[in-house]
Design goal:
GO terms for molecular function: ATP binding; protein kinase activity. 34% of the residues lie in helices and 14% in strands. By secondary structure, the protein is of the alpha+beta class. A hairpin with a 2-residue loop joins strand 6 and strand 7. A 6-stranded mixed beta sheet has the order 2-6-7-5-4-3, with helices on both faces. Strands 1-13 form a two-stranded antiparallel sheet. A two-stranded antiparallel sheet has the order 8-11. The longest helix is centred in the C-terminal third of the chain and has 33 residues. The protein folds into 3 domains: 146 residues, Phosphorylase Kinase, domain 1 (2-Layer Sandwich); 219 residues, Transferase(Phosphotransferase) domain 1 (Transferase(Phosphotransferase), domain 1), CATH 1.10.510.10; 35 residues.
Amino acid sequence: MKCFNYFRHKARSKGYRSAPELRNPVSKSDGTDLGDGVARSSASAISPRRIGDLYEEKASNLRDFSFSELRIATNDFNRLLKIGEGGFGSVYKGRINPADGEGEPISVAIKKLNKDGFQGHKQWLAEVQFLGVVEHPNLVKLIGSCAVDGERGIQRLLVYEYMPNKSLEDHLFNRAYPALPWEKRMQIILGAAQGLAYLHEDLEVQVIFRDFKTSNVLLDENFQPKLSDFGLAREGPTPGRSHVSTAVVGTYGYAAPDYIETGHLTAKSDVWSFGVVLYEILTGRKSLERNCPKEEQKLLDWVKHFPADSKKFSSIIDPRLENQYSLSAARKIAKLADSCLVKSQKDRPTMSLVVQRLKQIIKTTDEGSPSNGSFSSNDNEMNESEKSPRETGLSESATRRFAHLSKLGEHVEGLSKRRFMIMQKAKVS
């Protein structure tokens, strides 16, 4: 899905910087975007520390690549090396020499942003500043960047660690890939939640991801998830402020309705997006499926017909799992998703609480599953036909009626057998 911009503000052309300079004049106190490519929070003018300040402390850890280096690394941006494409531009697999010049070249992902003027520079700058500051096992690592201004326009590139297993989107929705097992889905979504919790609660400056979706959850060689694409990330509100006021951007189907309606961005906007992805994990369906019948096209509208506690809930589970999942855990995941998707953003859980709940669900599932690790959705519910009348809550009179009907059935069956024998003898004679 492509990103949208509800208000359709277009940035005016300004002079471009060839390096990620992050210090800027005092921003507006309402947290609006000044259009200079630096994301800031509400009241950032009085905040003692901002992303720009933190970036300056760690900027020396990033490599500064020349355009020719990255051109060689990608064989002149060969189409055969393209591994991703979106509204931001294209991503290529490349190989670069280690920073110390010793050892074998390493594989990297090189994002080449579109030459769309100021917006391209703005997203590049946001990624440099945020990824230059954050450090977590569930966030993609930025190795370095490249910025060149020439007669043919600007060139803005980013160099990341290479993620060989592509994205969660590929493994959930692309039928060319094997179905993700239940246990792996749980570990991936837990890792993604931990990444968001770190951004929201563990940094000196709160970071709102603003574009959480399956295509932005990349998977390494061990299927460990890492959040990527920080081009739309913003600083969260400072203490004393409830939100950041900003133009509405993101991906249709994932953006929180309160954010769309008001432009008020909070960490709970990411929580809503996380709830959408939880249902995608459960169902194997995208948030918007235009090829489905009209009543099933919008995932959140469709799943409302199958509440977590209902008997028909299992109808929404991804059929590619082939019943190899815990139904009780799936119900709990759906209830967790519902809590993330409540209308009032204040009533949604924090991501740290989401992480805690996911760990509890996974632990309970592991303790209740057989030793071989495989389990069927039917393990968690008794077969209705195996329950006695008393267990199903029937009265004594109803029990007697069932017994009477059973005897009648036996009597009819006996008559049918005798009739069959008579007909057979008639044929013989």
